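pasting for ref
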Amino acid sequence: MTLRRKIDFALGYPANVPASTGYAPAAPDQPGVSFGGLLRQLRADAGLTQQELAAAASLSLRAVSDLERGVNLTARRETARLLADALGLAGSARLVFTAAARGHAQAEAFPASDAAAAATRTLPRDVPSFTGRQRELAQLADATAVTGGVAGILAIDGMAGIGKTAFAVHAAHRLAPRFGDGQLFLPLHGHTPGQRPVDPADALASLLLTVGIPAQQIPPGLATRSGLWRDQLAGKRVLLLLDDAADSEQVRPILPATAGSLVLVTSRRRLTALEDALAISLDTLPAQQAAALLVRLAARPGLDPGDPAIAEITALCGYLPLAVAMLARQLHHHSAWTPAGLAADLGAARDRLGLMRAENLSVTAAFDLSYQDLSRGEQRLFRRLGLHPGTDVDAYAAAALDGIELDAARRGLEALYDHHVLTEPARGRYRLHDLIREHARGLAAADPAADCDAALGRLLDYYQRTAASGEALLARQSRARPAPAALTSPPAEVPELPDRTRALSWARTERASLLACIDHATSTGQHARVTALTAAIAALLRHDGPWTDAITRHATAVRAARHLGDQPAEADALHELGAMRRLTGDYRRAAQDQEAALGIYRDLGDRLGQANALDEVAAIRRLTGDYRGASDALEAALGIYRDLGDRLGQANALHQRGAVRYLTGDYQGAAQAQEAALGIYRDLGDRLGQADVLLYLGAVRYLSGDYRGAAQAQEAALGIYSDLGHQQGRANALHQMGAARRLAGDHQGAADALEAALTICRDIGYRAGEANALHYLGAERRLTGDHQAAADALEAALGIYRDIGDPGGEVEVLNEVGALYRVRGYLDRAGACHSRALELARRLDSSWDEAHALAGLGRCAQAAGRTDDALAGLRQAWEIFQRTSAADAAAVAAELHALTPTQPDAANALPGSPP
């Protein structure tokens, strides 16, 4: 098309109508002709932005924008000359342009006519490389099927670079056959660099010209143009694609008024004020679709979407189509580059966004346009969100970061969400896309360092104060003092945490942010922050695990406290570190940590700290078979707790006393201690403590033969653990339930419970629990005849018990392995296992394990035909079971009677034996 024809077309003379038709545009001084439209068309043809044209013509951006928008209908002669020079106009085209700019026409250039040609197929070409989005396309197709008797409106929104236009154009081409009266595309330039959004009146003029309304018949004013446009669409089936809308107000006057037509609107904003519009919000691409897009656009042989390097590139792009496309083009044009090399460069880059560009396009530029749409306050909040060490934020954290009121923070977050700067993965929680976060941090780097430091200080203060208040509700032991404080600017508003349930919910929700803040404090050498924040989440780490990570956290806190010379913080951190090491089965170092903490507490005169450390020392000794030492430590701890009036400490110590008595075969004493602990826990409303006690009461009842009572206690404990989301407790309860179901003959139910327990233990790093589950799974598989699986499980359990130094667990497994060898016919091996178990049990003073070892030796002797040895072993086992009121006594007595059916005197020698 010649330059003169382009001018004619911009003024209303369609380029596809030959001059011989007699058609020509109306004179520019007649109503309806827009010099702004002419200027916009010529600028677009020249490939210039408004900003670039203004610079080339030595004019202000405002002057060019006002002319294009029709704010100024004419231009001064000098302005027209400068614009013509910048556009490269010459000859007759320059004369026509200058005349139009001055608001009058040359008659020979503009003969009048009422004719006009209509364009009905103006969609841009579909992109051959379009990939994925099947779910969203199906959603769009379903939405277009029902319009409710009016024109359908679909608002397609999403963040910058998400592929809104490509998706809308692709969808429009697929829908085109359903709209036989035309498919029209109109860019609204809501975010075009150097150009202001299209005025609705100008947009309507362009559309009216497109559908064949002569320029001189286009009325002035928004309302009259909107009415004429709707009249033109009445009774027709037209698909209208409005691309890159700035807001709802820009779109509303353009919408058809009658049924049959469909409007697709793309925007970076959520057009929440657009009545009856159905919204489709585009998210980043799934990983596989992003990889497929990169490979298609790179168009290089040998590239495989399954290549780990391709996966790494797309992940570093945050699966954002724009970023993926730019890097794909780089791979396409750099034949010497490899995906692995590009992935390495991206991973090592300090400015990842800087690598995501193609010619004059970049991801940063796309993000900048969205940023420029924000108000100054929203821009500041956006920059400060980029300082957050974590990924998620709520209104409280945002208020702390920005130093604003809570309501203002809520409004700011919602505004950023509407602009697709933030996502909302859960109600009230907002997240920056990885690349947008990097963009925000880059912008924040230009702010004064003191402002950024103050913002981060406020955020850390908020998390520390709130976490400490939650810790006070969640901790399993009373504290001698609140968590170490390093608050510099206490937050004005924090969420209410009235009870344990709310405290745990808050801590779990904020877990990732809390850990990220600790990492930030560690990396920046803020030692007081490290100790304070770690102490404030100690209960959460113990409650949810994984405990191996918790060990790392507390070890770091110990080092930070030592760097500061803060002995109280060091003792607390050592105490928590030792507790985590106990839970993971590292009993030796756990004991060292608790002894070190106990020494500091004694030096400080901190009696409550001493009692807490002694309670942990007792637990370690119990687990390592030192039952006497455990009892001594517990009595010392219980005495201090009673002196201080610490009822929670008393309940904990009584619970542990019951556990020790259970292991030594004093089931009546164990039940009494557990019942006493249960009463205190109930008085305190401590449900977790109640569940722990119920679990042990279930075990005592189970060994005493009260299987119904045991099952009730175990079910009650499991219910509480499940309500609280306490994984260790759930694993322990499932383990006991599996054992009970095995005895009841429910082998499938037993296996299911034990497999579930095993999974939980491995997830949280609970090695003792893992060994317990494997032990009982081995016993279950022996009973069902799967001897090889039983052997594998028992071998694994024995290895863990020995590795963590748990002789109590080891002796139980040895007895079970002995039983397995016996039923497989390996009597020598079976006897060796029971003999080793007997030795360990006597060293541990564990009556129950001693009795089982003796019974095992008796059964081996019976299988070998040594009746006298069998009677001796079984009789000794029976006597211990009888003395401890163990349910096993009846079964062993039956075995003895079976061995001596013709020797009544021998049977009668068993006190309390059945007649």
